[in-house]
Amino acid sequence: MNVGIASIGSYIPARRVSNEELSKTVDTSDEWIRSHTGIGNRHIASDEETCSYMATEAAKEALDKAGVDKNEVDQIIVATITPDYRDFPATANLVQRNLGIGNIGSIDVKAACTGFVYGLELGRGLILGGTAKTVVVIGAEKLSAITNWNDRGTAVLFGDGAGAAVLTSCADGEGIVDSVLRTDGTGYDALNIPAGGTATPFIPGETPEEDLCIYMDGQRVYNFAVKVNVEIVKDLMERNGLTSDDIDYIVPHQANYRIIRAASMRARIPMEKYYLNMEEFANTSSASVPLALAEMDRKELLKKGMKILTVGFGGGLTYGGNYLVW
Ligand code: UT7
Hints:
This protein is of the alpha/beta class. The protein folds into two domains: 2-172, 3-Layer(aba) Sandwich (Peroxisomal Thiolase, Chain A, domain 1); 177-325, Thiolase/Chalcone synthase (Peroxisomal Thiolase, Chain A, domain 1, 3-Layer(aba) Sandwich), CATH 3.40.47.10. The chain contains ten helices and 13 strands. It has helices at 19-23, 30-37, 51-66, 91-99, 115-128, 152-155, 218-239, 257-267, 278-281, 288-298, and strands at residues 2-11, 16-18, 41-43, 75-79, 105-109, 135-142, 160-170, 175-183, 191-192, 215-216, 249-252, 307-314, 318-325. It is globular and about 55 Å long. The model has no long low-confidence stretch (mean pLDDT 98). The chain binds oxa(dethia)-CoA. Oxa(dethia)-CoA is lined by residues 28, 32-33, 36-37, 113, 152-153, 156, 191, 218-219, 221-222, 225, 255-256, 259, 283, 285, 314.
């Protein structure tokens, strides 16, 4: 027996902000954003569209599509770096409340843009270990709430949204066949929120507002991202006796078109194998991989037996990937 994705759902805020619209308030241009990132639009959540709201809506759609009753769910895992409440309670607790199901476990995973990749393997482990039969894994982010809108180096990159997968048991050789989960904690300061944690507590009147928003050393993260994209794809292929010809799709974290193009050239894997949708949704951190999978599902691109690699990379610095047989 193994564990696989029975269905995938998503939630995307209706408000769509184009590069042109953003250029009215941020010192940037459509030309710069497109040529440096491949991003054309992003969806921005309203005040009512909290992280837990978007996560719940994505979970409901996934449960509906799988034909799984909500009362069959044993565990909710929410991957997010933009929880409704700063440290606790977990956003997964609020999703459990919103769904109105009791007697189950719920926990958040904080692995930034690799969060959904981690969540899938953790969910798989819970089912294989016998703790759960049905797990909902969600990647949900409201990055607009922690964006420094005065920093053009980051303000143009991010968007909001959520994607959710229902995990249930499946036949051996199908589903989530393998995962690699990695971290380089020496890079903790390349991409983070500098203040507000216990290392640098928030002090009213003293803590600069921008230190409570996303900070990123873009170049450092870019170089890391290209390197680990190649590493994860190669390792997953080697560990599973695959060549690039065997792979139907690679679904990477949707941060930047240039990162993926550089990784594709280094790994000698054609760009056509990479599924990209950052043009529409920008970088949604842990929501980006499930949002891409949900879009592929909607477009009926995912066929039974297809071999798919996911790749996550981001703050932490975390990285990893899953080998899925659909
Ligand atoms: O999800 C987590 C993973 N995150 C990532 O993977 C992001 C990784 N990093 C990147 O994708 C790239 O580093 C960025 C897209 C963030 C930046 O691209 P870059 O080619 O590294 O640009 P840069 O930061 O070196 O900036 C080049 C120039 C600078 O101007 P000067 O100093 O050359 O005059 C910036 O001030 O571009 C300027 N610039 C902008 N100009 C217009 C930076 N941001 C903008 C902007 N609009 N939004």
